[in-house]
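Translate structure to sequence.
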């Protein structure tokens, strides 16, 4: 029974849809759009990189538009508001 529970936990862990890694306290996962399921979550850094590469301001899957504001943070150019 314990082994089955461990398998369930392994498959139910939330992961980033870009890098496929789990969230951590230093790099939490966000859900910035209305996508659900295995594509719901993303790290902020992964999203910023994807947006720079794609040159889009919305999710290509659900078409939700992201809102940005400049940030003084050295590790990230934008703070992303998640609605």
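Result:
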């Amino acid at each position: 029974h314990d082994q089955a529970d461990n398998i369930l936990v392994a498959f139910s862990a939330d992961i980033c849809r870009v890098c496929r890694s789990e969230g951590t306290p230093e790099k939490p996962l966000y859900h910035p759009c209305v996508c659900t399921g295995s594509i719901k979550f993303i790290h902020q850094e992964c999203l910023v990189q994807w947006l720079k590469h794609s040159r889009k301001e919305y999710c290509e899957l659900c078409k939700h538009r992201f809102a940005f504001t400049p940030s003084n943070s050295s590790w990230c150019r934008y703070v992303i508001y998640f609605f």
